[in-house]
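Whiteboard transcription, Tuesday session. T.W. wrote the C-alpha coordinates on the left side:
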Protein backbone atom coordinates (compact mmCIF):
# COMPACT_ATOMS: atom_id res chain seq x y z
CA UNK A 1 0.00 0.00 0.00
CA UNK A 2 1.22 3.51 -0.87
CA UNK A 3 1.48 5.79 2.18
CA UNK A 4 -0.90 8.76 2.24
CA UNK A 5 0.67 12.15 1.64
CA UNK A 6 -2.06 13.84 3.66
CA UNK A 7 -4.17 12.51 6.50
CA UNK A 8 -7.81 13.36 5.73
CA UNK A 9 -8.57 13.86 9.41
CA UNK A 10 -5.91 16.55 9.51
CA UNK A 11 -7.49 19.09 7.15
CA UNK A 12 -7.36 21.65 9.94
CA UNK A 13 -3.65 20.97 10.45
CA UNK A 14 -3.09 21.48 6.71
CA UNK A 15 -4.94 24.82 6.82
CA UNK A 16 -2.88 26.02 9.78
CA UNK A 17 0.42 24.86 8.23
CA UNK A 18 -0.21 26.06 4.67
CA UNK A 19 -1.42 29.47 5.83
CA UNK A 20 1.34 29.88 8.45
CA UNK A 21 -1.11 30.28 11.32
CA UNK A 22 0.02 29.81 14.89
CA UNK A 23 -2.50 28.08 17.13
CA UNK A 24 -3.54 30.26 20.04
CA UNK A 25 -6.05 27.86 21.53
CA UNK A 26 -6.38 24.08 21.69
CA UNK A 27 -7.59 22.46 18.51
CA UNK A 28 -11.39 22.85 18.37
CA UNK A 29 -13.41 19.81 17.37
CA UNK A 30 -15.41 21.77 14.80
CA UNK A 31 -13.14 22.99 12.01
CA UNK A 32 -15.76 25.35 10.62
CA UNK A 33 -15.73 27.43 13.80
CA UNK A 34 -11.94 27.50 13.80
CA UNK A 35 -11.97 28.69 10.18
CA UNK A 36 -14.58 31.35 10.98
CA UNK A 37 -12.41 32.74 13.77
CA UNK A 38 -9.39 32.81 11.46
CA UNK A 39 -11.33 34.48 8.65
CA UNK A 40 -12.99 37.07 10.87
CA UNK A 41 -9.65 37.90 12.49
CA UNK A 42 -8.07 38.27 9.07
CA UNK A 43 -5.05 36.35 7.91
CA UNK A 44 -1.71 38.05 7.47
CA UNK A 45 -0.07 38.70 4.14
CA UNK A 46 2.52 36.02 4.94
CA UNK A 47 -0.31 33.47 4.62
CA UNK A 48 -0.49 34.19 0.90
CA UNK A 49 3.23 33.55 0.44
CA UNK A 50 2.97 30.39 2.52
CA UNK A 51 0.06 29.14 0.38
CA UNK A 52 2.07 29.83 -2.78
CA UNK A 53 4.98 27.81 -1.40
CA UNK A 54 2.86 24.81 -0.37
CA UNK A 55 0.53 24.76 -3.38
CA UNK A 56 3.31 24.97 -5.98
CA UNK A 57 1.29 27.63 -7.82
CA UNK A 58 2.98 30.78 -9.03
CA UNK A 59 2.47 34.18 -7.47
CA UNK A 60 0.69 35.24 -10.67
CA UNK A 61 -1.71 32.27 -10.49
CA UNK A 62 -2.52 32.84 -6.83
CA UNK A 63 -2.98 36.58 -7.28
CA UNK A 64 -5.56 35.81 -9.97
CA UNK A 65 -7.33 33.27 -7.73
CA UNK A 66 -7.61 35.62 -4.75
CA UNK A 67 -8.29 38.75 -6.84
CA UNK A 68 -5.32 40.84 -5.75
CA UNK A 69 -2.64 42.31 -8.00
CA UNK A 70 0.85 40.81 -8.02
CA UNK A 71 2.23 44.25 -7.23
CA UNK A 72 0.08 44.50 -4.10
CA UNK A 73 1.23 41.03 -3.07
CA UNK A 74 4.84 42.10 -3.43
CA UNK A 75 4.33 45.38 -1.52
CA UNK A 76 2.41 44.00 1.45
CA UNK A 77 4.41 43.55 4.63
CA UNK A 78 4.28 39.95 5.94
CA UNK A 79 2.39 40.97 9.10
CA UNK A 80 -0.19 43.12 7.30
CA UNK A 81 -3.71 41.83 7.97
CA UNK A 82 -5.55 41.04 4.74
CA UNK A 83 -9.26 41.52 4.23
CA UNK A 84 -11.97 39.03 5.10
CA UNK A 85 -12.68 38.11 1.46
CA UNK A 86 -9.09 37.15 0.71
CA UNK A 87 -8.77 35.38 4.06
CA UNK A 88 -11.88 33.32 3.29
CA UNK A 89 -10.66 32.50 -0.22
CA UNK A 90 -7.28 31.28 1.10
CA UNK A 91 -8.98 28.97 3.61
CA UNK A 92 -11.29 27.62 0.87
CA UNK A 93 -8.38 27.07 -1.52
CA UNK A 94 -6.31 25.33 1.13
CA UNK A 95 -9.21 23.01 1.99
CA UNK A 96 -9.63 22.26 -1.74
CA UNK A 97 -5.93 21.48 -2.14
CA UNK A 98 -6.05 19.26 0.93
CA UNK A 99 -8.92 17.28 -0.60
CA UNK A 100 -7.24 17.12 -4.02
CA UNK A 101 -3.98 15.81 -2.59
CA UNK A 102 -5.93 13.31 -0.51
CA UNK A 103 -7.88 12.08 -3.56
CA UNK A 104 -4.87 11.83 -5.88
CA UNK A 105 -2.48 10.82 -3.09
CA UNK A 106 0.09 13.13 -4.68
CA UNK A 107 0.41 16.92 -4.92
CA UNK A 108 1.90 16.85 -8.42
CA UNK A 109 -0.87 14.60 -9.79
CA UNK A 110 -3.48 16.91 -8.29
CA UNK A 111 -1.75 19.99 -9.76
CA UNK A 112 -1.61 18.29 -13.17
CA UNK A 113 -5.35 17.53 -12.92
CA UNK A 114 -6.05 21.19 -12.04
CA UNK A 115 -4.58 22.35 -15.35
CA UNK A 116 -6.30 19.85 -17.66
CA UNK A 117 -9.70 20.42 -19.28
CA UNK A 118 -12.32 18.27 -17.56
CA UNK A 119 -15.41 16.97 -19.38
CA UNK A 120 -17.40 16.88 -16.16
CA UNK A 121 -16.66 20.57 -15.69
CA UNK A 122 -17.85 21.52 -19.20
CA UNK A 123 -14.33 21.05 -20.61
CA UNK A 124 -12.95 23.80 -18.37
CA UNK A 125 -9.75 23.50 -16.42
CA UNK A 126 -10.44 23.26 -12.68
CA UNK A 127 -7.86 26.02 -12.04
CA UNK A 128 -10.03 28.39 -14.09
CA UNK A 129 -13.09 27.64 -11.98
CA UNK A 130 -11.58 28.12 -8.55
CA UNK A 131 -11.47 31.90 -8.89
CA UNK A 132 -14.93 31.93 -7.30
CA UNK A 133 -16.46 30.20 -4.29
CA UNK A 134 -19.05 28.53 -6.49
CA UNK A 135 -16.25 27.25 -8.73
CA UNK A 136 -14.42 25.89 -5.70
CA UNK A 137 -17.63 24.03 -4.77
CA UNK A 138 -17.91 22.57 -8.29
CA UNK A 139 -14.30 21.38 -8.25
CA UNK A 140 -14.64 20.01 -4.71
CA UNK A 141 -17.75 18.07 -5.81
CA UNK A 142 -15.80 16.66 -8.76
CA UNK A 143 -13.04 15.53 -6.40
CA UNK A 144 -15.64 13.76 -4.25
CA UNK A 145 -16.93 11.95 -7.34
CA UNK A 146 -13.41 10.85 -8.24
CA UNK A 147 -12.82 9.75 -4.65
CA UNK A 148 -15.93 7.57 -4.80
CA UNK A 149 -15.16 6.16 -8.26
CA UNK A 150 -17.89 8.09 -10.10
CA UNK A 151 -16.43 9.19 -13.42
CA UNK A 152 -18.66 11.01 -15.84
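and on the right, the sequence the group agreed on:
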Amino acid sequence: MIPKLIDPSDEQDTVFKWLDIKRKTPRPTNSSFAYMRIIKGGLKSKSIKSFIKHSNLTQKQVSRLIHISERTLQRNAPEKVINIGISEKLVELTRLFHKGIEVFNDKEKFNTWLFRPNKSLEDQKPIELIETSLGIDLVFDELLKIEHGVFS
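Someone added at the bottom: The two ends are 27 Å apart (CA to CA).
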